TrEMBL record:
Residues 269-363 form the M23ase beta-sheet core domain. PANTHER family: CELL DIVISION PROTEIN YTFB, PEPTIDASE-RELATED. The lineage of its organism: Bacteria, Pseudomonadati, Pseudomonadota, Alphaproteobacteria, Hyphomicrobiales. It comes from Methylobacterium cerastii. It comes from the Bacteria. Keywords: Hydrolase, Metal-binding, Metalloprotease, Protease, Zinc. Pfam families: Peptidase_M23. Its cofactor is Zn(2+). This is M23ase beta-sheet core domain-containing protein.
Length: 378
């Protein structure tokens, strides 16, 4: 075989293939050079879009986290506000309780016992300082849930509601007792003939400075005024001649008012009570007071006059002797003198008078008032 005849065509084919490859490479290189800017611009555009999308996602996630944190902060703030409200309410109820306790102290002894009635409980139940709610992290399971928070706050509010209702009941009871006591004192002391409408106290006054315009405060003001009036009447009663001047009650020889005079047998006004008594029997002061006089006084014979204040005086007449002196202060039950028959008298007895603003009034009103008040004491 002729090798020379075969080799040239094969070389030609290799040359042709190499030429094709070189041509293709040249074409690709030329294309890359021609479209390089466009490809690079597209790649940059896609990277920018991916970056924008990534940043948007991050922003959305951050916003979601911020909303969650804001919601937790709002929940914590709401809990803190409710706790502050409960604490303020408790403080108000404790102030009310102090007022009620003060009112109880001004009532008549034994009228109301706050330890047994159940209407006046002691201090309000103190709310827990934070109930574990401040700084509440809802993402942590060991913290109380929002439902638990609501239940605990609702329970505490319920206890405060119960205390407020009990305080209203207690105030009603105090007012009722005070009104009853005031009515009783006015009825009983009204028998004495005193003008109970004129001021019983003096030296009081000042500018009006309202403290609390709430309905509870208005009710407390009414109760306090009623208690004050009753207390003033009790103090007045303690100064009035309500005791009996003689230890032993032997009855009346003559009552107050018109009678036949034992000397003239004509109609005359008897200005006191003639109390049956034995000669030398002790006579006692019927209330605290100052001795105005202790001397012979005409038809009264030996007479002692005692000023008890509030325009009220008592007189002890026909005494056998004095056991006091003018200007002396006496207490109820102190010895005044001894029963006799001096002056215009037909026998041993005690002439006992009560006068209001200089005018004689029936001593029986004072004696009956004293007896009824003594029977009404616990």
């Amino acid at each position: 075989m002729n090798l020379r005849a075969i080799v040239p065509p094969r070389r030609n084919r290799l040359l042709a293939a190499s030429l094709v490859v070189a041509t293709l490479w040249a074409a690709a290189a030329s294309g890359l050079l021609l479209f390089h800017d466009d490809l690079l611009a597209g790649f940059v555009a896609r990277q920018g879009a991916m970056q924008v999308a990534y940043e948007a996602r991050l922003a959305a996630l951050q916003a979601e986290l911020d909303r969650g944190g804001s919601a937790r902060a709002e929940a914590q703030d709401a809990v803190a506000a409710r706790l502050d409200e409960v604490a303020a309410r408790q403080a108000d109820l404790e102030r009310r309780q102090a007022v009620l306790t003060g009112l109880v102290r001004t009532t008549a002894p034994g009228a109301i016992d706050p330890t047994t009635t159940g209407a006046l409980p002691g201090r309000a139940p103190a709310p827990e300082p934070d109930l574990g709610l401040r700084g509440l992290d809802t993402a942590r399971p060991e913290r109380r849930s929002a439902r638990d928070v609501d239940l605990r706050l609702a329970a505490l509010a319920g206890r405060l509601d119960g205390l407020a209702a009990a305080q209203v009941i207690g105030l009603d009871r105090i007012t009722e007792r005070a009104a009853g006591e005031l009515w009783r004192l006015r009825r009983v002391l009204g028998r004495t003939g005193l003008d109970l409408q004129r001021p019983l106290e003096s030296g009081l006054g000042g500018p009006l400075v309202p403290i609390d315009p709430s309905p509870f405060a208005a009710a407390v003001a009414v109760t306090a005024r009623t208690l004050g009036d009753a207390q003033a009447l009790r103090r007045l009663a303690a100064r009035l001649p309500l005791d009996r001047p003689l230890r032993r009650d032997r009855g009346l020889a003559s009552s107050f008012g018109p009678r036949l005079d034992p000397f003239t047998r004509g109609l005359a006004l008897h200005t006191g009570l003639d109390l049956k008594a034995e000669l030398g029997e002790p006579a006692f002061a019927t209330a605290r007071g100052r001795v105005v006089s202790a001397e012979p006084a005409g038809g009264y014979g030996n007479m002692v006059e005692i000023d008890h204040g509030h325009g009220v005086v008592t007189r002890f007449a026909h005494l056998a002797r004095f056991d006091v002196r003018p200007g002396q202060w006496l207490r109820a039950g102190d010895l005044v003198g001894r029963v006799g028959s001096t002056g215009r008298s037909t026998g041993a007895h005690l002439h006992y008078e009560t006068r209001i603003d200089g005018e004689p009034v029936d001593p029986q009103g004072f004696l009956e008032a004293g007896r009824e008040l003594a029977e009404g004491e616990p």
